[in-house]
Amino acid sequence: MSGTRKSYNDEFKKQTVKYIQEQTKTVAELAHELDIPAKTLHQWLGKFRQFPDEPVASAERVRELERQLREKEQQLADMAEEMAIVKKAVHIFSNPKN
After folding, report:
1. CB count in 10 Å sphere of residue 44
2. Which residues form a coiled coil (predicted)?
3. Which of 12, 34, 57, 98 could form a disulfide with 8 if both were Cys (CB 3.0 to 4.6 A apart)?
4. Diameter of the chain by CA atoms?
5. Residues 30-54: tens digit of each pLDDT
6. How far apart are CA 75 and CA 23, in angstroms?
């Protein structure tokens, strides 16, 4: 980062905050990407966030939600398999052979 102090207008700050909220990267990663100190970005988030009570999406949170989704998908697949077995069993036992 350069040693000179940069000045940003409010519109730029608002757009940057919006960009941060839409990303799954950490503020530190985005700070490096945008060449703006992380502390400055945190200050902008505090001032310009549209939903101050809603936490910024973190990469860790996204990974956790993806893990939960995979887990639920596996449970659903297991239940579908069990349902197919039960249907076959009901069919076999409801039609006794003479």
Report:
1. 20
2. 62-89
3. 12
4. 93
5. 889 889 999 998 899 888 877 655 6
6. 29
